[in-house]
Amino acid sequence: MSFSAAQSAILSCRERVCQVIAAAGSGKTRTVIGLLEKRIREGILPQRILALSFSRKAVAEMRSRLAPQLRSGVEISTFHSFCYRHLRRHRLLPGKLISPQIRYRFFRERLKEAGSATLGIPYDVLLRFPRSFRRLLPALCMQVHHAFYSYKRTLPGFEFDDLSALLLQHLPELPELRRSYDLIVVDEFQDTDPLQLEFLQQMIFEQLFVVGDDWQAIYGFRGATVEPFLNFKRYFPGTRQLKLGSNYRSKKEIIEAGSKIIALSRRQIRKKVACVRGRGSKKTVVRLCLEERAMVAHSLQNKSHVRILVRSNYQRRLWLDAGCDPELVSTIHRVKGLEFPVVLLDLSGGWNRKPERPDEEIRIAYVGASRAEDRLILLASETPGDDTTESKIMKLFENHLQISMEQLPAYLAR
Fold first, then answer.
1. Deepest of 64, 159, 261, 335, by most Cβ within 10 A of its Cβ?
2. What is the torsion angle, in degrees rounded to the nearest 10, for the CA atoms of residue 134, residue 140, residue 143 and residue 146?
């Protein structure tokens, strides 16, 4: 397996703590696998290596790409699975696991009991949009959550999201666990949360690598925060920072489009992304006025290399109602880490008109754009609202070629 100079510098890093800032499409996973295999060849026992990530999909990819003879030795896990496994091993789980279905039924029953206090808002709407629930009915929201926490204590029981806090609570009592690993590698570190950061601070290791990209931090709704990645040296003084800045995925015009979008974000680690694949043409990034979703959906028939990427499940349902193949339309959160020859990025509707996390809204658009390999088509409303994410982004591309619905099939070709 050959590596670039930037990737080789990471594999050769000997500092105790190393932060890798990896641009989209820069071969991050390949570098992580190369690092694990190199350290094993150098003498670290596979059982003394811990590789963590924040999604089952990322964990599955790491496992599949690691040499078969090493997969059973190296501990590769999500943070939550790691916590559950070791809490269970040490018999420290407080009762039974409360599933999301049980939680949903409990909340729904409490809302039903609240009667007119819900102001006639359907229960499913309040439970599907928790931020709106807190904003519209703060007293009722607090009351229902307090009842659920009391229910958990009474059972006793715990939820999946409680696992990090539970392990941290018991970690001082588990010195053997704290000293179990010589090498800890954390992928997608931009999606960490404060508890997971504290876990790393309490572990005793020979070397720690955290790998991620603040431009792709899009899980604030799950409690993740990009702040530990932005200020990593504050938490681990003496950290060496290394960058993977070559994009092997996209044409140069797509990389430039992503750079324009992410420049709208106020808090970020500034970096330049170099293109490996070279230029396309002025037709590589184009605009399309979204008049009828059904017309676009019809053009996508038998186009497995194309994806429509949307901000929310609500937008996805609009595309499905318009007759779009479910396999060809995805939320941006679901395709993080994937890539497609042609991407239609649906910016219509203003997204969140007044987003709670405006920088994250921009990062979501950037992640959507950076999934494209050969062609990026920006879908916009006929009249984007003022001061919306859509209007801000489309203003950046007002000089780009705008195509018509009649021209779209030609732009969807491979």
1. 261
2. -30
260 backbone φψ class: left, alpha, beta (φ>0; ψ -120 to 50)? alpha
Strands, E assignment, 114-250: 157-158, 183-186, 207-212, 240-244, 246-247
Q: Taking the model in full, what pTM does it have?
A: 0.90
Q: What are phi and psi of 211, to 5 degrees?
A: -125, 135
Q: How far apart are CA 219 and CA 332, in angstroms?
A: 11
State residue 85 phi and psi, 5-degree precision.
-60, -45
Tens-place pLDDT, residues 48-94: 999 999 888 889 999 999 988 888 899 999 999 999 999 999 999 99
Q: Is 178 exposed, middle or buried (0-12, 13-18, 19+ CB in 10 A)?
A: middle
Q: What is the Cα–Cα distance from 272 to 322, expressed in whole angstroms? A: 39
Q: What is the pLDDT of residues 259-281, one digit of tens each?
A: 999 999 999 999 999 999 999 89
Q: What is the CA radius of gyration of the chain?
A: 23
Rounded Cα distance between 194 and 165, Å, is 10
> Which one, of 162, 153, 56, 142, lies nearest residue 100 by Cα?
162
Residues 388 and 351: beta-carbon distance below 8 Å: yes
What are 208's strand-pairing partners? 17, 184
Summarize pLDDT for 289-332 with one digit per residue, the tens. Answer: 998 999 999 999 999 999 999 999 889 999 999 999 999 999 99
